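Dear colleagues,

As part of the handover before I leave the project, I'm documenting each prediction I ran so the next person doesn't have to rerun anything. This entry is a single chain, and its sequence is reproduced below.
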Amino acid sequence: MLIFHIIMGSLVFLSGIGALAFSKGDKLHRYSGNVFFLSCLLMAGSAIPLADDPTIAISSIYFGSTAWMIIQRPEKKTGSFEIIAFVIISIICARYFFIAITSSPSFMTTMFYIFGSVAMIAALLDLNMIIRGGLSGAQRIARHLWRMCYAFLGAVLSFVANTSGKWPEFIDENLPIYLVIAIMFYWLFRVLFTKWFDKTKYMIS
């Protein structure tokens, strides 16, 4: 199971890079995104029996699945999947904060507060989308974008943790993490606050 998990993690890493690098909306981007989604599910699924606490693995499945599903749904549509996803991320959010509150202060305690805060934002956005009856246009693309990037960030965090101490001294081993976060915010700003979406008529369907 561990070897399978590592193989799927490698696919997540490579396909995630491809999805970010290829022109948004073209065939290579879509192909890379589909490979990323499937390998993300398999990687996180295989991590559940390996982990002492499967919360992070389930969270990765949630973010990858909701990012993928939004481009499968027609605009302004929701269904039972979105309701179930909202319930799951709400439970995950509560679990993260419970772990953080009941743990002794440490680096991981801070990380669980961060994970819990992101999960809470995701839950609130899910609830907002359900109440509104779905998303359209740039907001739909933004939902797909940040959730895919966050799922990819989880794989990058795992990669950095497992290669800690093996990087050349002149390279900050956290550089991949900073790059993914920077790319995510760059595209969120470009999609939501510029006319890029209108000019390119970038529609995922």
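The two ends are 35 Å apart (CA to CA). The first helix runs from residue 2 to 21.

All the best with the project,
I.
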